Amino acid sequence: MDVFNNILKLLIATLWVKYSWENRASHPPKTDRYLIYREGCDKMHFEQWNGSGWASSNGDYTHWLKPEAPNKSNIIHLKP
């Protein structure tokens, strides 16, 4: 189970996009809600990207992620 957990953590870590206000290529592609990481307080929460910036920010957003809804092909069923 430890191997599975380590692989899962690595996979999730690769989905985060490093964000920089100066680098437009790092901006989310469309207006939507994203999971963001705030480095200053080491927290994650959902935030609205309005197409040109975050709805609220004090400049400490460093990464964003667009979670995908589960579907039958990407659900993992673990047996106890």
Question: How does the SSE layout of this entry go?
Answer:
Layout: H1 2-15, E1 17-18, E2 32-38, E3 43-49, E4 61-65
Antiparallel strand pairs: 1-4, 2-3, 2-4
Short structural summary:
With 80 residues, the protein is an alpha+beta fold. It has one helix and four strands.
What does this structure look like?
With 80 residues, the chain is α+β, with helices and mostly antiparallel strands. It has one domain (2-65). It is 18% helix and 26% strand. The chain has one helix and four strands; from the N terminus they run αββββ. The chain has one helix at 2-15, and strands at residues 17-18, 32-38, 43-49, 61-65. The protein has a four-stranded antiparallel beta sheet, with no helix packed on it. The longest helix has 14 residues, at 2-15. The model has no long low-confidence stretch (mean pLDDT 83).
- Which radius of gyration do the C-alpha atoms yield? 15 Å
Q: Outline the low-pLDDT stretches.
A: none
Order of helices and strands: HEEEE
Report the β-strand fraction as a percent range.
Answer: 25-35%
**What is the number of independent domains?**
1
User: Helix amount, in percent?
Assistant: 10-25%
- Helix and strand content put the structural class at alpha+beta
Strand order of the largest sheet: 1-4-2-3
The CA-CA distance between the termini, in Å, is 11 Å
Number of helices: 1
Total strand count, please? 4
User: Main β-sheet: number of strands, strand sense, barrel status?
Assistant: 4 strands, antiparallel
Apparent shape: elongated
Report the mean per-residue pLDDT as an integer.
83
**Oligomeric status of the shown chains?**
single chain
